[in-house]
Write a structure and sequence with these properties.
single chain
């Protein structure tokens, strides 16, 4: 079953489809400038929803894992994976008194887990900017999602679409190729379906 956050994403994309795209598509593929403007807006806003979803979901997953460990001592796969991705290494201290939750040089296990969770969440919230391949891998791999669990075709579709979105968002409409709303909806639906698969995988981490 998909998460509450994914269901919110799905509803939001459906709302954008109803508000911005034609109710029916023309076999000729010929549309007014108004339709093309709305289709460009659909692309930009759908991208924002996808980006917000994956950031929220990733933070939700790692914070849930941290809470589980803190309450029960049980470590979920995503938290174990995140700890293994932590770049900093800590040498063995000379004295037991040098180990503490707040020590930057020799933090305890609790301190290291809290620092890793905090660092990852901060990275997601402040340094992630998009859903291109590099963005998604930076979010998903530290949580223990493996290469085999990521659909490479979906990733390529998402990469190409996100790149095209950048051109729409940062250039004049006069310089852009008109977007076919039917094809745009099909592409966004594929990306949405791919995120559903990722969502279900994250639930197991």
């Amino acid at each position: 079953m998909s998460s509450s956050r994914y269901r919110t994403l799905s509803r939001r994309v459906n709302e954008l489809r109803k508000n911005l795209l034609p109710r029916t598509f023309k076999p000729t593929g010929l549309y007014t400038n108004r339709v093309h403007e709305h289709t460009r807006a659909f692309r930009v806003l759908a991208h924002a929803e996808f980006e917000s979803y994956i950031e929220d979901r990733a933070v939700e997953v790692i914070q849930r894992a941290h809470s589980t460990w803190d309450a029960t001592g049980r470590i979920r796969p995503c938290l174990l994976s995140l700890m293994s991705h932590k770049e900093a290494t800590y040498s063995i201290p000379d004295k037991l008194s040098e180990v503490s939750d707040s020590s930057k040089k020799y933090p305890s296990l609790k301190g290291r887990i809290e620092a890793s969770t905090r660092h990852y969440s901060t990275f997601i919230r402040t340094r992630n900017h998009g859903i291109k391949e590099k963005n998604l891998l930076s979010i998903l791999l530290p949580l223990g999602i493996t290469v085999d669990e990521i659909d490479s075709t979906w990733l390529e579709v998402t990469e190409n679409w996100a790149t095209a979105r950048g051109k729409v968002a940062h250039s004049s409409a006069k310089m852009q190729v008109q977007i076919d709303p039917k094809i745009e909806l099909q592409t966004v639906s594929k990306i949405l379906d791919g995120f559903k698969g990722i969502d279900m995988i994250l639930d197991k981490k």
